[in-house]
Amino acid sequence: MAATGTAAAAATGRLLLLLLVGLTAPALALAGYIESSQICCSPWSFLISTFKCLIVDEINALAANAGTGFAVAEPQIAMFCGKLNMHVNIQTGKWEPDPTGTKSCFETKEEVLQYCQEMYPELQITNVMEANQRVSIDNWCRRDKKQCKSRFVTPFKCL
């Protein structure tokens, strides 16, 4: 659930940034005219430079997700031995079980990387890293049974 909240906050932040850019576009155009008239070092100059950087960063982030639709979460997998592996659906931000119904815990970084590549074939996953904090994952079921519980685990980020 913590990962979902973080993803929602990031998506909300992006939407607010785009709204702010939409509202300030006329001011940015006017400020470009003022800057070209040799009036520099005004409070507007700093603000405009900051907005330009934010806009470029946001466009680059959206372009990176162009082939996958709008991503609301980063690709991650989680393991708990004896239970099915879980992965984040990057469009919904929700944890989902292994689609084959067979994959459980891995012991090497290479196995984790390979699993990330299987779960996210549309992304170019080349590395994995253990996340900084644990998350609670609901409805985590045993491989052979329907007993489902919540578990706290440290997921792996698929990079």
Can you describe this structure?
It is found in: Cell membrane. Keywords: Copper, Disulfide bond, Membrane, Signal, Transmembrane, Transmembrane helix. One of its GO terms (molecular function) is heparin binding. It is a single-pass type I membrane protein. This protein is of the alpha+beta class. The protein folds into 2 domains: 63 residues, no CATH class; 83 residues, Amyloidogenic glycoprotein, heparin-binding domain (Sugar Binding Protein, Amyloid A4 Protein, Chain A), CATH 3.90.570. Helices cover 43% and strands 18% of the residues. The longest helix is centred in the N-terminal third of the chain and has 35 residues. The chain is elongated, with a radius of gyration of 21 Å. About 22% of the residues have low confidence.
Unreliable sequence segments: 15-21, 23-40, 59-68
Biggest sheet: strand arrangement? 3-2-1-7-4
Backbone shape: elongated
Oligomer: single chain
Which value, in Å, is the CA radius of gyration? Answer: 21 Å
The H-level CATH homologous superfamily of the largest domain, spelled out, is Amyloidogenic glycoprotein, heparin-binding domain
* Helicity level: 40-55%
Percent of residues in beta strands = 15-25%
Structural classification: alpha+beta
CATH class of the largest domain: Alpha Beta
Give me the CATH architecture of the largest domain, please. Answer: Alpha-Beta Complex
| H-E string | HHEEEHEEEE
Distance between the termini: 21 Å
Question: Mean pLDDT, nearest integer?
Answer: 73
Tally the helices: what do you get? 3
Largest sheet: 5 strands, antiparallel
Please tally the β strands and state the result: 7
Total domain units: 2
CATH fold node name of the largest domain? Sugar Binding Protein, Amyloid A4 Protein, Chain A
